[in-house]
Predict the structure.
Amino acid sequence: MNPRILRVGIGGPVGSGKSMLIERVVPILAKKNYRVCIISNDVISKEDADRMRKNLATEQGLLPESMVIGLATGGCPHTAIREDPSINLAVIEEIESKYNDLDLIIIESGGDNVTTTFSPALADYFIYIVDVSGGDKYPRKGGLGIETSDLLVINKIDLAPMVDADLDVMVRDAKIVRIDKPYVLVNCKTDQGIEDVARHILHDVLFDQPPKNLLSQIK
């Protein structure tokens, strides 16, 4: 039996930028020779998975097309990652039985609910993403996603002037609500903050260890 593959869950409201965040972070990991699989959860559509497959696999060749998997959960997206993650765990079990050179599985799931979290049985590390267009009140509203995620990403910071959002207020409130937990301000379109997100994954999840394919060569 192949060893368990480390997993990162990325959750947040629809349109907050989860897929684009993945599309920006994966090239950084691939450049360092880490091999990644992506599982994208949606209620009905597999549109996000299709887009990531096109951008990351077909066009950039950063991973095989089979390593971007779309799941249509057919119900509440929170259930498939929290209360009953069996549909995701079944896919992961199949992946782990077939591949022993993967370093990371990224699991994406939407949901318009600040109570979004990932079951500890599903994800080792949880990134919650919100976007500035929701207003600078977002961090202080709290909720499990904002308060307990391992990393909070505040995306689309370029929109702050257009929606009259104060980034300083968002930073202040994030510090208060999250206490010592980290947060990153991000603009996925310009890659601002993306290196910081990748750095957290490399350090906090992968523990700065060499990729499995390179580690096997060293041994």
